[in-house]
What we know:
By secondary structure, the protein is an alpha+beta fold. The protein has three domains: 6-112 and 193-207, no CATH class; 115-187, no CATH class; 219-332, no CATH class. 57% of the residues lie in helices and 7% in strands. It has helices spanning 6-14, 19-28, 35-49, 69-89, 92-110, 115-124, 144-151, 173-190, 201-207, 217-222, 227-231, 240-255, 260-277, 285-298, 305-312, 318-321, 324-332; strands at residues 52-53, 56-57, 130-134, 137-143, 163-165, 168-171. It has a four-stranded antiparallel β-sheet. It has a two-stranded antiparallel sheet with strand order 1-2. The chain is flat. Residues 217-224 and 326-345 have low confidence and may be disordered.
Amino acid sequence: xxxFEADELDEAYLAPYSNxxxxxxxxxxxxxxxxxxxxxxxxxxxxxxxxxxxxxxRRMMPFTATAMESIKLNYIKTYAYCRMLLSALKxxxxxxxxxxxxxxxxxxxxxxxxxxxxxxxxxxxGIAATLTQVKFSQAFSMRLTDFLLxxxxxxxxxxxxxxxxxxxxxxxxxxxxxxxxxxxxxxxxGGLPIDYQKxxxxxxxxxxGVSISKRYKYRAAFKGETWIDRLLxxxxxxxxxxxxxxILAPYLVNTKGLSVDDAAKIINDYIExxxxxxxxxxxxxxxxxxxxxxxxxxxLKPMSFENAKELLGGVVNIDLIKPKKLExxxxxxxxxxKDDNQVTR
Length: 345
């Protein structure tokens, strides 16, 4: 593309969050909002959301190599519009998906790169690494303190997977790529959301008509299986804190065996639906994640149905969440029949 160096355009296409991409966007002077690019951004974010299920990436977003400069520039511009649209939507979960997907795409792109080119990409992200010879092969090396600073509290790059010697850490290409991916995701999220006052009014107006769904396999797969599954289909107006910590968190992480992150996604989605019944709640994502972690760590089991009836009786129709076996027993007149009111294993 006239006006842009080939190397700069290539780097921006590979890493649209890089300084090279910012330079190109700045040079393009996107003063006028283009509807076509808003549509492309919406479609791109929709496709990204389809890569995830229960908050976890199930398929990678591949990097598509191309020699066509127009395709590269279109992707860079679409990325810029995605940032504006995400910020207008104020959807933090979708921002997380966006960061993970785009950083995974970059990781896919650098897989086959020679080590010096990979190092250049890393340096452009602020990763202070060097190439060094270790025995008969090249390795990436960093000061241990720089590595820990780059990793932060992110997962996926446990220190035990790396060779440490004399205050430095040594990595093969396969070990270096997860670090780049982690730093890239942090870089993307660090710039989002954009200050609402800086978002063009056309983008804000467009965002009001956009709804990008996020798939949760849980609701379809487990619907009606136990009384707590039924509860998750029925939003409540009160006692949400106690419902989270003594029913939902223990049930999802210990009875269902979901990860803390997957359980938290489901509970947060439930709380959002509860807010439509009554928006007054202090249940936050951090509270939900803490309760899921605590339940997992302590091996807690959920409250029984019989005890939960007293807690939930005033906020949900108990008949809607009644255990199936209890329903059958009542319908058949068998009062002695056991039910599944204690959903522990």
